[in-house]
Automatic annotation (TrEMBL):
The chain crosses the membrane at residues 20-49, 61-82, 109-135, 147-163, 170-188, 200-223, 316-337, 357-382, 394-427, 470-488. It comes from Bosea thiooxidans. Keywords: Membrane, Transmembrane, Transmembrane helix. Pfam families: TctA. The keyword Transport does not apply. InterPro entries: DUF112_TM. Coiled coil: none annotated. This is Putative tricarboxylic transport membrane protein. Residues 20-438 form the DUF112 domain.
Amino acid sequence: MDTLLSLLHGFSVAIEPSKLLFCLVGVFLGTAVGVLPGIGPALTVALLLPVTFKLDPAGSLIMFAGIYYGGMYGGSTTAILLNAPGESASLATALEGSKMAKAGRGGPALATSAIGSFVAGLIATIGLAFLAPWLVELAVKFGPWDYFALMIVAFVTVSATFGDSPLRGLTSLFIGITLGLVGIDKLTGQARLTFGVPELLNGVEVTTLAVGLFAVGEAFYVASKRFRDPEEIIPIKGSLWMTKQDWKRSWAPWLRGTAFGFPIGALPAGGAEVPTFLSYSTEKKLCKYPDEFGKGAIEGVAGPEAANNASAAGTLVPLLTLGLPTSATAAIMLAGFQQYGLNPGPLLFAEKPDLVWGLIASLFIANVMLVILNLPLIGLWVRLLAIPQPWLYAGILVFATMGTLAVNSSPVELAMLFLFGFVGYLMRRYDYPVAPMVVGLILGPMAEQQLRRALQISLGDPMILLENPGSATLLGIAFLALVAPFVMKGLNRFKASED
């Protein structure tokens, strides 16, 4: 009952005209950037962080959440019409969606994607509203040792999940944690790793790192691959709407995709890639028309797209209740919270209930807006694909530079922006994931603070981390998550050598 009352109060905040406008702008931008290949919601939120520095915190965060949801919607358009998923979460959709488009059924593919996203987003947001308060009650009982262990789990799982190599993910994370040490130590008042540069005394700005890695780095990377084969857009033929048979074949995959996406998205090592491929393989096994898989089965679009969008709501559960990002976009959104002096976690629900419940309620509104925007405006989203890449990425560079200078008009900040952009380019060039670096910069100082608190309570005895059941269990999970990828790789090599 308390949750329903809180949610109703959240709707009273979310339906304010200014909040509705922020939500509309967010879902429109999110869909637009989701459609454009290579530009995901993480990049867009990173670009807007400096621009929204002095805006209303609640409205800005509602807009960021709308971008996240919209990006998940829009990513299916390129996956279906270009066979070029803008994000890894849309890879499974591309497998059947592009085949449907080539067979002249691009319209039904886009329709089942949009409606499935709406159904999944609605159910998953209800799950978020009812699961979040329960997690908050659990998190209030956490001690410093539990929080430190939880952050170690986040470090390890994020590093192991992003990219193909856990070692590369850990390298990216280590660089981020090192950057988090820059500035004045809050305990001793000593300057660390500032190298005599006064501008570094306040530490490295998360917004500068995020915009540099995601926006500038992506622009450099695309420019370096400019002269590749142009992508051919598959024209939409026939009706845009689904037949009665399409509806009959889609509703069960929508529900199953939601059942995969929401709980896995809420896990520290969740993300959207795992549930989308689980959904795809499940639909392939359960489909009454197995011969159609690989040739354009609508179940192969409906299930993964529902899982994709349900995981977005699932990702917000650990972000809002524990302050733990489990995706690149969630990491940037965490930076957005910190930009306004807000720390997601159990205290945020007590200190800023209007903001938290307004944000959750706005997700319901965003879902309705997205399904209204997506179905009639498919033609507009397709036209966006015709924007020349040089114009697009030149605009991104200008926008990134102006936004960073608006927050801090320092030559050092500008130099750091392009230095991080060059680092982001190199990381993409050599297949190093960039998200763990942002997570390291955000959570590194927080983990250090919690560890120091735990050691102060135990008078310097590190065994306190293992003596408490909660922290010991979490550290055990972190160890297994760290070792598992290397063990699996070793087993695969052993099987390959036997064959």
